[in-house]
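Tokens help. One example:
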Amino acid sequence: MIFPDFTHEVQKRCSTYTEVKRKLRQMGVAYALMFPARLRVTTAHGAQFFQSPEEAMTWIEHNAP
């Protein structure tokens, strides 16, 4: 088995996306958290990439179905 071995810093940055991921799950939107703490959201219009949870939350607020 292979397990990700991220530094504490990267784990901390990834955890800042918790609320964003919850909202995306509720919306039924596919997403992936990519190294190092970069969010990819996939919709029918293509993929969007976000460098911060604030940026992603703004996108969610303007693009919620």
